[in-house]
Amino acid sequence: MGALVESSVLMAYQGLFEDNLAAAAQIAPQDKEIDRYYRQIEVDCIRVIALQSPVAQDLRLVSTLMQLIRDLERIGDYAKDLGELAMRLATYPPPADLGRAQVMTQRCRLMLSHSLAALTNLDAELGLQIKEQDDAVDDDYDSLYNSLAQQSDIIGPLEPYLLMLLMIRHLERMADHTTNIGQRVAYIVTGSRN
Fold this sequence. Notes:
Structural class: mainly alpha
Radius of gyration: 18 Å
Helix content: over 70%
Mean pLDDT: 95
CATH class: Mainly Alpha
Shape: elongated
CATH superfamily: Phosphate transport system protein phou homolog 2, domain 2
Distance between the termini: 26 Å
Number of strands: 0
């Protein structure tokens, strides 16, 4: 599931910044597969709780995984939304702030990669470091939002600016869900919520 989500985010990136609309178009069908994994993993976790009555660390692992997969599923949804935005943005000349949004997207991709590595290796320290990366994405969001909101000399359609606002909002939320994954991994390992 994590690999599919990471792939969807990559395809959204390719659609937005490399004019690869074929990649962007592949995200929606892949999102359906992510959703199937989400539902199956959730059922499997419930089955483990019901049939095996896990306690202590095992219960913490299973219950936290149920929350964590929801974060992954939401990131997949945001990637799908970004793919749709890429197709709409492609009909316009590149907006002025697109390069800054690309940097923000690269940060989000790195955060996702780190959160999945933290999960795979049950690395609490790496999981907690993701919050620092989220602060940079939040700064990107604030800066880009202010830049877009202060536009007063818009000539032509307003839609590219609105699409850019949606893009940075989706990226900011994606980063928040990625941060949640890192914090959930730390909780699985340490039993402490930071």
